[in-house]
Amino acid sequence: MISNVQAGNAAYLQQVSSKNKKESSTVSKVKEMDKVESLKEQIQNGDYKVDTAKTAEAIAKDLI
Fold first, then answer.
1. Where are the domains of the chain?
2. pTM of the predicted model as reported, rounded to 2 decimal places
C-alpha cells in the first residue's frame, strides 16, 4: 500500500513539473518573437546597424 501512494505522488509531481516547463517555454517564445519583430521593424525602417566587429569575431571563432 505504501508503494502505491509513493508511485501516485511521483506521477503527480511529474505532471506538475511538465506543466511548469510548458508555461515557461511559451513565455520564452513570446520574448523571442518580440525581439524578431523589433529587428524586422528596424530593418524595414533602415534603422538597423550591423555590428561588423562583432560579426567578424563570431565568424573567426567559428572558423577556428
1. 2-63
2. 0.40
